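Hi there,

I know you've been waiting on this one. I reran it after we fixed the sequence typo, so this is the corrected version. Both the input and the resulting structure follow.
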Amino acid sequence: MRRETIMRLIFWVALVVALGFALNPRSPHFEGAPGDKVQHIIAFLVLTAMAVAAYPRARRWAQALALSGFGALIEFLQMIPILHRSSEFMDWVADSGAVLAVLALAATLRWPRVR
């Protein structure tokens, strides 16, 4: 299996897992865990880095739109009353900020280098 194929599989699994955690009515709470916004930032830093590695030839603006849109989708779905989740605009802002930070760093470092 090619490295890109493996990275894409890992990326999509991570995306589904992130969605599952975001929509789980009984989301796990760990003692000493960072706050909600920090968790959002960490999740989207990791997802964006994985997206860059999985799709190195993709346009960065398209990755930014897709991942920011994924964050918006999460917040929209969290409005569903049966999920007992809260939707916050600032969560989406944190998600989008993390996405832009990783993509800016990737562009600056020209990472990953496409052969």
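Quick highlight: The radius of gyration is 15 Å.

Best,
R. S.
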